[in-house]
Amino acid sequence: MSSETPEIIIRECDTIEEMKKCVEIQRRVFSSTDLEISPARHLLVSKHAGGWTLGAYVGDALAGFVLSVPMFRGDGRALYSHMTGVEKDFQNLGIGAKLKWAQRQRALEEGINYIKWTFQPVLARNAYFNLERLGAEIKTYMPNFYGFDSDGNSDVGDAVGVPSDRLFAEWKLDSPKVTALANGETWFERAEVRARIEVPTDWNSLILRDPKTALAEQDRVKSEFEDALSAGLVARGFERSDTHPAFLLY
Question: What does residue 166 show for φ and ψ, rounded to 5 degrees?
Fold first, then answer.
């Protein structure tokens, strides 16, 4: 690729051919089996049920996508952001963030102010992105959400029985924090931190190198989250660190 930052165009994936390209990205990015991949039919049905798939294009190439599945929250419309994938050759260009902010803008234009999705509690980079870059918050921990054979690394998951624990990220699109971040402003949390939950610095390396320790760490994180959330705390921040990255709960 050129050293110059390419122009990135975000637009909806309308055709079945474009949706099939999203399926190909899933195979390359997530290394998932066909049973774990959202097929083009799922994307097409989501579109006609009130959702949509946004694609990030660099020239004619589809570099990434985000799938928005329609849902209800109370009496109002909401969205479940089922997956976001970016081709490895186009990562580190901010495409994931561009897709999420475009997803927010499209949702607000349609009168939707709430999106949720899941992510692994032990992945520090994802946690920072979701809580600090996007302004999502965490109120729910889901143990073994997809089952043992649906772990992000299926080979490791099958071999050592890694539970697919997930956190629900709740994105309140018109909240003061999210609005500020969407406008490129810095947000300062004024409340006092009530608890910190540390996570491994590099979970993916740890699970390959030392599965027993990785499982113990995941179990500790689950226990600490369940205690904190049952006490009414909410995770609204994440502290980056080379040694002790941690969720911040208020």
Answer: -140, 150
